[in-house]
Inverse folding.
């Protein structure tokens, strides 16, 4: 038997999905080990080997692929535990990293302090050089200044250096020469240039992304080398792929050079899973909600396409490499409930994490977390947490809640626990609104795909807050992102600056094609080195366009197929595509208004073999034989008797009406009194409101599709 494994290293748990060639799968979890994440990875792989009754050295040779997502780089940036980094930049432009865009995140907070730059000012070294906007050299690179910067870096023990000159996107020669000198003077130091990482306009966005790449590069390189060594020693002979924040995979070698592309890589796998599970029910518009131990991640998927953004902020600095637009808030099973100094009842964003964890874990945590509240409300079984492999103590939850909330607010135990539940649900519902309503999309028209170990406990309450009609809880909900990594293709993004007015008089078709051909050659070279055959390569071309006078541009698809060239006759089609995209995003367009091209992009995809998720056989509609007991649960001021169902025994065709609890080994689904559930053809759980047929509910979440079909008929 051959296997493929998806791995998602999270802040609290490391998730594993083991897929066999016959379509069967198994879910595993291991506590994350922040001091060395590879320990948790090997612990999970050892669990799999033990489950097969063989040593790890016999199990790993049967694994053909490991798809791996990680939060190592994200956590390094958020905690400040990055490599000591230096910056070489154009003289006279030393402080763009600190001044950023000159804006404060909270414009009405007069006392808000600016973030501490990743690179100290003494390590931001200016050098004499200047290139014009069109790439012409105005001032030669000062070799002495670069050597002087190297001496400063050597003296201060710098581990990484970012090189970002003012107009290097037009001509990278100065950056290449500086990198060559620095590599000679600073052997073993990680050197990153903006012309390699992100050759586009706007020095702050380009430079900040390059600084991120340098700051996390040594950390990721050390981790990957460490992991590769341990896997090889343990007998692994297959392919290791690393998840990117753009939703694609890359080889370890590429990941070590472009470490910034792994920022937010873990949650990116969830978007791929969201498209897959939406397709099962012909739903093109999906909102994924992934609630883990530390955070709650939301992604809006419209027309099967997750939003791609180049304007993400990490630790208050811009990360402009293309990334799936995922909105994250501090709301997870480990989010701590507390009464603040103003007497307000709050939950999160501080998390108990894996260690010390929620109070009920009995691992040193003394503050009440969301998991503690869920336990006291009856939603969790203290003897069946993680399928019974981990015992949790309700008395410790009770004591923590009493000390930190109940006594301070004069509430009963159930009132305090219900308050925690309601507050965290409200926080998560608001995160969904930010992702959908704030972008002009009604979440009531979306299929809510809920994931994470804690997500299904809270899914129906969030849907009630949003007035959403339907929820899908995948059978592999608790390893949702790990699943997405297994079904993701290899993907790389490239960009080239090209400025012109997009009208018949001004368009430079040869220049347009020259830039596209340059990116195409680079993309084919990278994918070839990663072992992707020519017939498995798909090239998607995009243009960053704006109306003349606007500041921000919109990525618009260019009507070019694999290997084709842009023709003058495609201009009208490109103009129309931009108008349509502008109308979709902002609710209006300006047909006939001058359009301005700022840059061209290429998304190169190398398709890989996917695991085979096979439909399950029909079991039964009567689910009563799956009841394993009853439990009192607290819901909206009342204790209710709820049947508890054995999730592993449930399958295609089963139906039930709440109140009910479904216990899977790695998650729990809470079905409130006004919700009903059925198992689809993959044995996933689909929930909708009592009194509404499935057909009616699906009609609501497929509304856009129905509208398109009606328009086509008309």
């Amino acid at each position: 038997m051959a296997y493929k494994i998806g791995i998602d290293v999270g802040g609290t748990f490391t998730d594993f999905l083991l897929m066999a060639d016959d379509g069967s799968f198994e879910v595993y979890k291991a506590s994350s080990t922040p001091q060395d994440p590879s320990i948790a990875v090997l612990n999970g792989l050892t669990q799999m080997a033990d489950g097969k009754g063989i040593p790890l050295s016999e199990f790993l040779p049967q694994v053909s692929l490991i798809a791996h997502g990680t939060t190592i780089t994200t956590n390094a940036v958020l905690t400040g535990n990055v490599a000591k980094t230096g910056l070489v930049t154009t003289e006279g432009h030393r402080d763009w990293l600190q001044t950023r865009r000159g804006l404060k995140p909270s414009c009405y907070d007069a006392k808000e302090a600016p973030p501490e730059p990743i690179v100290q000012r003494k390590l931001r070294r200016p050098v004499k050089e200047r290139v014009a906007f069109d790439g012409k050299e105005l001032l030669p690179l000062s070799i002495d200044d670069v050597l002087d910067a190297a001496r400063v870096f050597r003296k201060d023990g710098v581990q990484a250096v970012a090189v970002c000159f003012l107009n290097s996107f037009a001509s990278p020669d100065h950056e290449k020469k500086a990198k060559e000198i620095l590599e000679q003077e600073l052997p073993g130091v990680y050197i990153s240039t903006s012309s390699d990482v992100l050759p586009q306009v706007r020095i702050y966005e380009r430079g900040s992304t390059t600084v991120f790449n340098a700051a996390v590069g040594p950390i990721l390189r050390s981790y990957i080398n460490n992991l590769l060594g341990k896997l090889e020693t343990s007998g692994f002979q297959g392919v290791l792929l690393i998840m990117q924040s753009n939703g694609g995979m890359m080889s370890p070698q590429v990941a070590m050079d472009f470490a910034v592309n792994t920022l937010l890589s873990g949650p990116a796998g969830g978007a791929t899973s969201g498209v897959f599970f939406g397709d099962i029910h012909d739903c093109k518009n999906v909102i994924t909600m992934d609630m883990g131990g530390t955070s709650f991640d939301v992604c809006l998927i419209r027309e099967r396409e997750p939003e791609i953004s180049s304007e993400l902020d990490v630790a208050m600095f811009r990360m402009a490499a293309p990334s799936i637009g995922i909105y994250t808030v501090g709301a997870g099973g480990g989010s701590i409930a507390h009464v603040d100094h103003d007497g307000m009842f709050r939950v999160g964003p501080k998390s108990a994490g894996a260690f010390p964890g929620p109070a009920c874990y009995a691992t040193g945590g003394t503050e009440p977390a969301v998991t503690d509240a869920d336990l006291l409300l009856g939603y969790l079984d203290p003897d069946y947490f993680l399928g019974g492999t981990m015992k949790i103590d309700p008395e410790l939850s009770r004591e923590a809640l009493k000390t930190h909330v109940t006594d301070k607010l004069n509430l009963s135990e159930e009132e305090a626990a219900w308050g925690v539940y309601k507050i965290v649900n409200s926080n998560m519902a608001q995160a969904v609104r930010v992702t959908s309503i704030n972008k002009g999309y009604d979440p009531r028209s979306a299929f809510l795909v809920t994931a994470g170990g804690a997500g299904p406990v809270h899914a129906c309450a969030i849907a009630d807050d949003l007035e959403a009609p339907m929820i899908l809880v995948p059978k592999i909900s608790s390893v949702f992102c790990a699943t997405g990594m297994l079904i993701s293709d290899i993907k790389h993004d490239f960009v080239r600056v090209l400025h012109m007015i997009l009208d018949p008089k001004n368009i430079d078709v040869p220049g347009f094609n020259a830039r596209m051909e340059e990116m195409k050659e680079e993309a084919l070279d990278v994918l070839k080195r990663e072992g992707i055959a020519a017939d498995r390569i798909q090239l998607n071309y995009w243009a960053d366009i704006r109306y003349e006078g606007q500041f921000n541009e919109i990525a618009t698809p260019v009507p070019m197929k694999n290997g084709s060239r842009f023709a003058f006759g495609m201009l009208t089609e490109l103009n129309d595509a931009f108008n349509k995209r502008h109308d979709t995003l902002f609710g209006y367009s300006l047909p006939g208004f001058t359009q301005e091209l700022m840059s061209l992009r290429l998304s190169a995809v190398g398709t890989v073999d996917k695991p085979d998720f096979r439909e399950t056989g029909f079991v039964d509609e009567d689910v009563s034989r799956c009841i394993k007991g009853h439990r009192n649960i607290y819901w909206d001021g009342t204790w209710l008797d709820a049947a508890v169902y054995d999730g592993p025994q449930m399958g295609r065709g089963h139906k039930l009406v709440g109140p009910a609890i479904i216990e899977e080994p790695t998650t729990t689904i809470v079905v409130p009194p006004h919700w009903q559930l059925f198992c689809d053809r993959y044995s996933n759980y689909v929930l909708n409101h009592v009194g509404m047929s499935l057909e009616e509910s699906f009609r609501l979440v497929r509304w856009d599709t129905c509208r398109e079909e009606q328009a086509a008929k008309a």
About this structure: The chain has four domains: 3-76+222-262, 80-211, 266-483+615-714, 490-606. The first strand starts at residue 3 and ends at 9.
